[in-house]
Design brief:
Structural class: alpha/beta
Pfam families: Methyltransf_3
Helix content: 40-55%
InterPro entries: Cation-dep_OMT (IPR050362), SAM-dependent_MTases_sf (IPR029063), SAM_O-MeTrfase (IPR002935)
Protein name: Methyltransferase
Shape: globular
CATH topology: Rossmann fold
Largest sheet: 7 strands, mixed
Mean pLDDT: 87
Strand order of the largest sheet: 3-2-1-4-5-7-6
Keywords: Methyltransferase, S-adenosyl-L-methionine, Transferase
GO molecular function, one term: O-methyltransferase activity
């Protein structure tokens, strides 16, 4: 592809995101603002919409989302689970290492609970502490967002928790929201002594990008899953348990 083709692709990606955002409800726009005011950056509107479509496509009944203040994604998932007509209510487990993040999620759900049959379980805990407590093979979908620590051991946890053909989604695979590239350049020298903080931030971004690159390699090497890299939002690794 030429540089012009990539430019068109980037413009198209921006159009997709804008369209998804414009089609979110007033409630979701309000919740986005509340989350941002509380210091929680929200994920891509197109990515959250894609999650919801996947829930309906595989007719998921039990979903886990790991994140830090992943409010918009949680509301999209509740809507998707609620749209599935079944005698058994769907269940969403939202695991958040931030107490403030769990408060935001509970408050948002309280505004919806009269209009949904979905059961929401909100847990304030670290993923690597809470996930081992769950029953194996009970879940249709596991979604990972937020802090880098949430991604640690994601494939091992998902393999144990998911049913056969269950779906694992790893968000932010291209590390774009941190301003880093998925193919980071070699480390450069610090330009001036007064730029230490900026240098530390760049190193953190670079480390995250390198981590996500390794995660992509691990996904395609893991024979327990069939995986694809999906160009939605800030990039997603979509893996299906064999």
């Amino acid at each position: 592809m030429s540089g012009r083709d990539y430019s068109k692709l980037a413009n198209g990606w921006e159009f997709i995101e804008d369209t998804a955002y414009d089609n979110e409800s007033d409630l979701l726009h309000e919740l986005r603002r509340q989350a941002l005011d509380a210091g929680f950056e929200q994920g891509s509107a197109a990515q959250a919409r894609f999650m919801a479509i996947q829930v309906r496509q595989i007719r998921a009944r039990s979903v886990i989302i790991l994140g830090t203040g992943a409010l918009v994604e949680t509301i999209h998932l509740i809507g998707a689970l609620n749209a599935l007509s079944t005698a058994t209510p769907g269940q969403l487990t939202a695991v958040d290492s931030s107490a403030q993040g769990t408060v935001l999620i509970r408050k948002a759900f309280n505004r919806m609970q009269d209009h949904t049959h979905v059961k929401l379980r909100v847990v304030n805990a670290k993923a690597d502490v809470f996930l081992p407590r769950l029953n194996p093979g009970d879940y249709d979908m596991v979604i990972v967002t937020g802090d880098e620590q949430n991604y640690s051991g994601a494939f091992d946890h998902a393999y144990r928790l998911l049913r056969r053909d269950g779906v694992l989604m790893l968000c932010d695979a291209l590390a774009l929201h941190n301003g880093a590239s998925a193919n980071p350049s070699p480390r450069s020298q610090t330009e001036a002594s007064g730029q230490e903080h900026g240098g530390q931030r760049q190193n953190s971004q670079r480390d995250r990008a390198l981590h996500m690159c390794q995660l992509i390699d691990d996904a395609f090497d893991d024979e327990r899953f069939d995986s694809a890299l999906i160009p939605v939002g800030t990039g997603m690794i979509l893996s299906v348990k064999r």
